[in-house]
Amino acid sequence: MSTAPRFLAPFDQGRVEPAESLLVIRPADAMGLSGFEAVTIEQGFSPTAKALEEAGFAVFPRAEGRYGMVMVNLTRFRAENLANIARASAMTDGLVLVNGAKTEGIESLLKMVKNITPVDVMSKAHGKIFSFEATPMPQEWLLAGEMARNKDGFMTAPGMFSFEKVDVGSTLLAPHLEGLKGRVADLGAGWGWLAAQALGPEVSEMVLFEAEQKAVEAAKLNLMDPRVRFEWADVLALPKQLPFDVVISNPPFHQSRAAEPSLGVGFIQAAAKLLKPKGRFLMVANRQLPYERALEGGFRKVEMLGQTNGFKLFEASSPKP
Ligand SMILES: C[S@@+](CC[C@H](N)C(=O)[O-])C[C@H]1O[C@@H](n2cnc3c(N)ncnc32)[C@H](O)[C@@H]1O
After folding, report:
1. Cβ contacts of 100 within 8 Å, gap of 6 or more
2. What is the mean pLDDT of residues 105-130?
3. Angle (nearest 5°) at CA 111 between 108 and 115
4. For 276, which of 34, 72, 138, 291 is 20 to 30 Å away at the CA?
């Protein structure tokens, strides 16, 4: 659901005047922005960034500089939201707008900001939008979004998949990645744990495809090996590549809160297209997600390597042309 009605409400009701330039952090879509002058967008999620770019906006994975007004759209990650609010407040001398659904924690963030400075609040579309005059925010909010070493010794930051510790599904797939040879791709590589396990001595080249730019930056720190390449990309829209011997993946299963098996199906189809005729695809998935049909549609041979802890492990080989 677009958040346009909530975003536009303070302007439509004359509570906020448009500024000469607007930075919009993390919008999920164009949300009524086409009516505004000089809009810059910060969006690190490649599919959304591409769609906004195609709609004619200036989009950067991370914006710098100063703006007349900065708007923060909440994500599901509180630490990321706190950091974005603090950054926004440091990037303008004008108003900061914060837009979010109840499910994204807007109520508690509103309380925290209210303890620092007066805010103007509007409720709309199962959420709130509030504005305040830019003012210095606590340093720890800024630091909450920074990269740090996690329990497994890898650099990660809030907002990345399983940033505090390695995902159980990935740990189950890892033993099946020993001795891989040739060109290897990891689809939805995140901060790189799975790829690091697969990078044995016989891998000649490895490409990590990942949609979240911050995760790509973390993966670069976690895999400093000349054989590894990093692509900030949407796996569902990859151009033709030099084919791979092996593709590995722990595919995403949702973008919002609900499970979206079509994402994993798209990853399976992408793997089949990326592989050499005798190539292999190794994948882990939540047990309840229905991927068998997509695997059989894309590959001549499909084998279940194991089923444990709520996960299924598959090896699929010989992609269908
Ligand atoms: C289940 S996580 C696995 C991450 C990592 N491989 C691991 O094992 O920890 C799936 C990853 O896919 C990424 N992703 C989601 N949609 C994507 C897309 N369309 N294209 C590329 N990556 C995507 C997510 O950002 C996330 O990092």
Report:
1. 73, 74, 81, 106, 109, 127, 128, 129
2. 96
3. 145
4. 291
Q: Ligand 1 centroid to 137 CA: how many Å?
A: 31
Q: Do domains 4-144 and 148-319 have the same CATH topology?
A: yes
Q: List helix spans (H) across 13-105.
A: 46-54, 78-90
CATH 3.20.20.140 describes domain 4-144: no
| Alpha carbon distance 230, 297 (integer Å) | 29
Q: How far is CA 28 from CA 20, 100, 153, 223, 313, in A?
A: 23, 11, 31, 30, 32
What is the Cα–Cα distance from 309 to 307, expressed in whole angstroms? 7
CA distances from 88 to 23, 101, 283 (A): 9, 19, 39
* Strand partners for 217: none
Q: Is ligand 1 within 6 A of the CB of residue 215? A: yes
Query: Ligand 1 centroid to 258 CA: how many Å?
Result: 16
Q: What is the mean pLDDT of the chain?
A: 95
Distance, CA of 305 to CA of 313 (rounded, Å): 5
Provide the pLDDT for residue 3. 73
Would you kindly state where each structural domain of the chain is located, as residue ranges?
4-144, 148-319
Instruction: Indicate the angle between helix axes 106-114 and 78-90, nearest 10 degrees.
Output: 40
Question: Which amino acid appears at position 298 of this protein?
Answer: G
Reduced to 3 states, what is the DSSP secondary structure of residue 234?
Answer: coil
Q: Is the CB of 44 under 6 A from ligand 1?
A: no
Confirm whether pTM is higher than 0.85. yes
* Rounded Cα–Cα distance for residues 210 and 73 (Å): 22
β-bridge partners, 307: 312
Q: Does domain 148-319 have CATH number 3.40.718.10?
A: no
What are the CA-CA distances from residue 209 to residues 45, 48, 103, 192, 214 (Å)?
A: 12, 16, 29, 10, 13
**Which residue puts its alpha carbon closest to atom 17 of ligand 1?**
211
| Tens of pLDDT, residues 209-223 | 999 999 999 999 999
Report whether residue 36 contacts ligand 1, using a CB cutoff of 6 Å.
Answer: no
